[in-house]
């Protein structure tokens, strides 16, 4: 990457793709699997694919012989948030509140603690509605 | 999305989070709300923070994003790039970052989210800030063909320049908004001197720092303007981002045909799949936004795609049925 102009880089990549896709050479060298697996996980750095996160793309260049090399750029995949997503606690359902009028029942053992009331949300996620 | 709104056009909707709704369920947070980027902005900081300072910081950031990334402003950098007809153009670090974010979203979604949908959106009628788009009108001449594709965007980081293939128009509506949320949340936290902050830009949510309690409680809806105390599923997030894409927002008709803003890059037309709304969580708001939008575009294969990546998501079908994947919690 460093010190190589974008045009040169594109020409190099174009040559690699042409050689690999001509077929005979790639097949003879058993590269078809490599090309396929690389294509499935790589994106060309020349086009600027880069995560906005801190983790940079991983660039790999493997020279297979004096004419053929494969350059891969592995773009970090999306990941779930470290803390995941948790359910908000249940909101009180009708009839569960004290004084709902239901007859009192004897309780033989401590019941499961009542669910903690859900905190009122502080924000809404939804389709990006325009202010009209 | 529209981008013509200006931060500060509206007075803050509240300076305190909804404390008055239910004293038993209130959280010690402070909040501010206004309009920018053609949608609602909501900033919440933990109770020890200065919400007004957070608002000022976010306003400044969003103003810069608007000047760099708006498709509708004549004086924006993106507008100039879209008009450059294949020439290299020097761009600011902010636009470069937004373009990189758009390309990253395209690369990681297999092109389901593609920034080169600008022309398709424009010909469909979404050619100005959405508030000014007529809700109905005469038939429009849309070309149902694949968009040029994200590989038509070239970036040269060292000098900071970009080039689009001739005829290509970029729209950064969703990814730049999500990227802005990712940048705004830590900025709000720092400005407010709070232990934690949440920023919502049109329902695309990013959080930073320590959340209150077990996490930031968020109402999951199909429209970001839904009041926070409305009925619906509530989830807690402690880090990363949460975003929703919906075909029910930003709709209009041309020639009696209903259109919306989520373009399928494979057809150049509004996506027509089994999901009308997708909500996803990820390590950043940008990733969550890309995953949610990709789900709408991918249609039937979205659930498997999300599951394979372990991304918690909630999909709402066109019939209103709900499917959850990737560890999205059961509704209690």
How does this model look, in words?
The complex is a heterodimer of chains A (132) and B (332). Chain A has three helices and four strands, in the order H-H-H-E-E-E-E. Chain A is of the alpha+beta class and 132 residues long. Chain A has a domain at 6-74. Chain A has a two-stranded antiparallel ribbon with strand order 1-2. The longest helix of chain A is centred in the first third of the chain and has 17 residues, at 6-22. Chain A is elongated. In chain B, 27% of the residues lie in helices and 26% in strands. Chain B has helices spanning 51-69, 77-82, 93-108, 118-124, 173-192, 285-298, 302-309, and strands spanning 29-36, 39-46, 89-90, 153-156, 161-164, 196-201, 204-209, 216-223, 233-237, 241-246, 251-254, 257-260, 263-264, 269-270, 275-282, 313-317, 322-325. Chain B has an eight-stranded antiparallel sheet with strand order 1-2-6-7-10-15-16-17. Chains A and B meet through strand 3 and strand 4 of A and strand 1, strand 2, helix 3, strand 4 and helix 5 of B. Strand 3 (85-87) of chain A pairs antiparallel with strand 9 of chain B, so a sheet runs across the interface.
Give descriptors for this structure.
heterodimer; A: 132 residues; alpha+beta; two-stranded antiparallel sheet; 3 helices; 4 strands; 24% helix; elongated; B: 332 residues; T-fold; eight-stranded antiparallel sheet; three-stranded antiparallel sheet; 7 helices; 26% strand; disordered N terminus
User: What percent strand of chain B?
Assistant: 25-35%
Largest sheet of chain A: 2 strands, antiparallel
**Helicity level of chain A:** 10-25%
Mean pLDDT of chain B: 90
Subunit arrangement of the protein: heterodimer
DSSP summary, beta strand count of chain B: 17
Q: Main β-sheet of chain B: number of strands, strand sense, barrel status?
A: 8 strands, antiparallel
Structural class of chain B: alpha+beta
